């Protein structure tokens, strides 16, 4: 599990900071992106091994971003975990093509297990 790269996209800087700090303690390399329209370009530049994606964001919602990823030949196989405080978030995430869903407020241990599970495949 040496230095896998994880990109985190959320419109809340506080969540980005917390996730970056926690994931770095798990020895992941972390990139954060607060502007959802920039995510696709960032993925292509940084080639993350996994994306953590918030569902409800201004401009482009997480499911819109995810649908774009799944239609892009270069990055369509990227594992994506969707984060959301919404009760129907898991359905929306699954419909858009997410590999996993984590409810907010998230349990960090649960999130790390899901990340490691997807990266092991």
From TrEMBL:
The modification 4-aspartylphosphate is found at residue 54. The keyword Transmembrane does not apply. The keyword Phosphoprotein applies. Gene3D superfamilies: 3.40.50.2300. Residues 5-119 form the Response regulatory domain. InterPro entries: Bact_response_regulator, CheY-like_superfamily, Sig_transdc_resp-reg_receiver. Keywords: Phosphoprotein. Pfam families: Response_reg. This is Response regulator. It comes from Chryseobacterium terrae.
